[in-house]
Amino acid sequence: MGVNMRAETESRIFSVDEYVRPSNGEPIRSVVLETNDSVVVVWHAHPGQEIASHVHPHGQDTWTVISGEAEYHQGNGIVTHLKAGDIAIANLGRYMVQ
């Protein structure tokens, strides 16, 4: 379901605008960079769209809200409101934003 837009590892600077793919259906997951150690993706979600809760058992997730707002579901019913500029980090095995 993701779009692998750039696979080379030589670049260290990326523009979010190159990867944002708006959709009126499900939010779009665009892969910016993928290596043996990590994956960097950009999600675009319209108001009301949700990214399904999920766990990454082998690594952390880091989410940065570029614009707008989001609800960060930390598990156990804990929900934190995020706004543009906020960064949420889910350590190994923790639930992520919705």
Automatic annotation (TrEMBL):
Pfam family, one: Cupin_2
Taxonomic superkingdom: Bacteria
Entry-linked SUPFAM superfamilies: RmlC-like cupins (SSF51182)
Domain Cupin type-2: 42-90
Signal peptide extent: none
Xref: InterPro entries: Cupin_2, RmlC-like_jellyroll, RmlC_Cupin_sf
Protein name: Cupin domain
Natural source organism: Escherichia coli
